[in-house]
Specification:
Layout lengths: L2 H26 L3 H14 L2 H10 L5 H28 L5 H11 L1 H14 L6 H15 L2
Helix pairs in contact: 1-2, 1-4, 2-4, 2-5, 3-4, 4-5, 4-7, 6-7
Length: about 140
């Protein structure tokens, strides 16, 4: 990958995260700083940041697999947005980190399964199939 393109790709993730955070702030009425704190905590706690970075840097077999991988990365951003919103509206009296902690505790069983799955993903190469499966697990968190 040419260096210029690599730098442009590296700049994309923060911009995508910023757009998602603006939507959370709009939907929850929370300050953008609080939203950012919660958004990044959700990403860290659920290992979504690691997963996206690994997926972006992963080797894929051709154009269509890259498109599929990019679509799943976009899905993970959207899911992180919804999870962050759910955490922030759980108890509006709580600060952003406490809101995320409370949300994680209230979904402990599914969060634990997700963490176990993420640990398994860290062994071996990531594939489109693996990312699709994790994407489904994270989507299950939205419905609990």
């Amino acid at each position: 990958m040419p260096e210029r393109l690599a730098w442009e790709a590296a700049a994309f993730e923060p911009m995508a995260a910023a757009a998602e955070m603006v939507l959370v702030a709009r939907d929850t009425g929370r300050k953008i700083g609080d939203v950012a704190c919660a958004f990044f905590k959700v990403g860290s706690e659920l290992q979504l940041d690691w997963l996206r970075a690994s997926a972006e840097g992963g080797v894929v077999d051709g154009h269509w697999e890259r498109l599929a991988m990019n679509a799943m990365i976009d899905d993970l951003f959207g899911q992180q947005r919804v999870l962050t919103s759910q955490a922030l509206i759980l108890d509006e009296k709580l600060g952003p980190e406490e809101s995320v902690d409370a949300w994680l505790a209230s979904h402990a069983r599914t969060v634990r399964r997700t963490a176990e799955l993420m640990q398994e993903m860290r062994t071996g190469m990531l594939s489109v199939a693996k990312i699709a499966f994790v994407n489904r697990q994270v989507r299950d968190l939205l419905n609990k």
